[in-house]
Amino acid sequence: MDVEGIEANNMDPMMKMWVSFVGIGLMVLAAVLVMFARAKTRGFIRMSLSLIAFVLLLSGMICGLVAIV
After folding, report:
1. Do 49 and 20 meet the contact criterion of CB atoms below 8 Å apart?
2. How far from 62 is each of 16, 47, 57, CA to CA, in Å?
3. Is 10 helix (H, G, I), strand (E, B) or coil?
4. Lowest CB count within 10 Å: 27, 59, 60, 63, which one?
5. How many CB atoms are located within 10 Å of the residue 1 CB?
6. pLDDT for 9
7. Quick check: helix, strand or coil at residue 60?
8. How many CA atoms lie within 13 A of 55 on its CB side?
């Protein structure tokens, strides 16, 4: 399986670990960003921060899937 030019089957275990850490970090950052957006902002800024958090969450999920495969 070829994901973004990286063959997941040929990744060594340390590289998979770092990719999974990046994925976890992106998901945590997305959660913190959503909590901040809902607690402290209104209107367009709130929607923008929520959209950025959603993109970070999807990126984290992709990293997690790459690390699993």
Report:
1. no
2. 12, 23, 9
3. helix
4. 59
5. 9
6. 65
7. helix
8. 6
